[in-house]
Known about the structure:
α6 packs parallel to α10, α7 packs parallel to α10 and α8 runs parallel beside α12. It is elongated, with a radius of gyration of 33 Å. It has 13 helices and 3 strands; from the N terminus they run βαβαβααααααααααα. α2 links the parallel β2 and β3. Helices cover 74% and strands 5% of the residues. It has 2 domains: 88 residues, 2-Layer Sandwich (Transcription Regulator spoIIAA); 219 residues, no CATH class. It is mainly alpha-helical.
Amino acid sequence: MAEQRFQLRGPLTAATIRATRDALAPALAHARTAGPAVVDLAQVAAVDDIGLAQIMAALLDARAEGKTLRVENVPQDVLRRLSLLDPKDVMAAPQAGPRAGALESLGDGFFARTRDGAEFLGIVVELVIRLVMRPKGLRLKAIVEQVMIIGVGAIPILSLIGFLIGVIIAFQAAYQLRDLGANLYVANMVGLSMARELSPFVTGILVAGRSGSAIAAEIATMKINLELDALRTMAIDPTSSVLLPRVIATIIAVPILVALANVLGILGGLVIAVGPLSLSAGSYWDQILIAMRPNDILIGMLKAVTFGIVIATIACHKGSQVSGGSREVAAATTAAVVSSIFWMIVCDAIVTMVFFFVG
């Protein structure tokens, strides 16, 4: 069957997008219904990217339907750009392989988690080796700067949260104890809850969301921008100069923040005890000293150190894994926060059970 020719005239630009579409429509319709069609561009004055996109759309539509549509007398500059978008390459799509079964998917997930865990352990081991073998390579100034960012920057919001949690615990405890005439034991509930559990956990969540995400995003951005490779080129170890200061600073900052949360939580309970519960400040403090043992504070501080290690190492690990663009940075940041909170809960449960059975 003979080819039908269709002549296009005038510029094919963004200003004539509707006219271009209307001019290509008869050629595409003929190719679909009657037979091969040829679009002649000999009379076309100019073609910009919008016009080129219209031509490509027509060619791809025809090819997708198995029809023949060709373009002739293409200007050289347009031909050069069009060759970069060869419809054969554009239309070539990888064939879908067979769907993985449930067992295969489970195995792939297991091996992916295993690789991720091995990479994480590798970063932890490298951090420990750098800390033990090259302590002189650490920059004290960098550690202090990170402590200020992670610790001091979190004091305002943590102070408010710690105080309000103390208020909440006091009210909740008084709700149960007032019927028994045991309002004095509100101090026990506030002190023990804050020291053993709430202060470390709330502080850990705050640091993970505020600083862990920032560490992961910062390291991921540095990797994408090849800043870590640039440091290696200058004979500067990124682990010692970038990762380790952030890990040490987090381990230092979290226990300090936990201690602050303990004090403010107890003060929040004191406000409720002296106010609505009509207790004296002296009796409240005396009961706090009776109820809280050094072991209770030790448990909270041990959790704080553990949470600091978990948050910092996971953030460094997720940030170091990034290999794509800005979307990967966002994914690494989210993964760092979620993973940190999950493993904080796991470590919290382990420490709590150990001290429960040990005494």
